[in-house]
Design goal:
By secondary structure, this protein is mainly α. The chain contains ten helices and two strands, in the order αααααααββααα.
Length: about 230
């Protein structure tokens, strides 16, 4: 696909994401969703507006970008628009198939992020939109998994109840966010987990869930602050 056509396709996929999110989506906060132990407070979903804004800036800048920007667009290719199409479709389909679409969106975003880091390193103008987009999609996969299980009446899996799996999933997510920061020197991806886990802490009443999410919020903030201050002083 020619470069201009690819940029136009990115813009079309972005418009589809917006239309799906604002005009075609169903009720994301129904009874099943609200009852899962990993559901964040409603204010947490306002991060989508930041994601929309950053993606818009990235796409518009691509039409006026230099050769480096054009190389990025070529390398990420169709993975980027496909991720937006999958993400938009997530809120259009029923609850159970939505897990498939959000999971595929996460995989495509991983490919996009890997290409961007390999080409541009840590330049914020390229990496920032996808760090936040990837971080929130990661949390969305965790939440949507439990929503689908609840919707289908699954209360136990391999002898472990919802609370046990919720704690395991939140711990796994927290460890991934921590490892992601150390490996990629990325501050924004783990900050999304601080936002999401803080919203879960604020919304849930279960003491185990609040302990895990609160602990990871403090741990991530400490690690990020320590590395930021050490980097600034070096």
């Amino acid at each position: 696909m020619k470069l201009l056509g690819l940029k136009l396709f990115n813009l079309a996929a972005y418009l589809y994401l917006l239309i799906a999110s604002f005009f075609l989506s169903g009720d994301l906060m129904d009874a099943s969703a609200n009852s899962v132990l990993v559901m964040p407070a409603p204010f947490a979903f306002s991060i989508w507006f930041l994601i929309y804004l950053l993606l818009f800036i990235f796409i518009i800048r691509s039409f006026f970008g230099d050769e480096e920007f054009n190389d990025v667009i070529r390398k990420i290719g169709l993975w980027f628009p496909i991720s937006m199409i999958l993400s938009g479709t997530t809120v259009v389909v029923d609850t159970t198939p939505s897990l498939l679409f959000i999971s595929l969106s996460l995989l495509t975003l991983c490919v996009v992020y890997t290409w961007i880091v390999s080409l541009t390193g840590s330049k914020p103008k390229y990496r920032l939109p996808f760090s936040i987009y990837l971080g929130w999609t990661s949390i969305a996969v965790i939440v949507d998994t439990f929503v689908v299980l609840k919707e289908n009446g699954v209360d136990q899996l391999f002898g472990i109840g919802e609370l046990g799996w919720s704690v395991l999933a939140l711990c796994l997510g927290g460890f991934v966010a921590t490892a992601f920061h150390f490996y990629h020197k990325d501050y924004f991806f783990p900050l999304v987990f601080v936002w999401g886990y803080g919203a879960i802490f604020a919304y849930q009443s279960d003491s185990f869930i609040r302990f895990v999410t609160g602990a990871f919020v403090l741990i991530l903030l400490f690690i990020l602050s320590f590395h930021f201050l050490r980097r600034r002083d070096s």
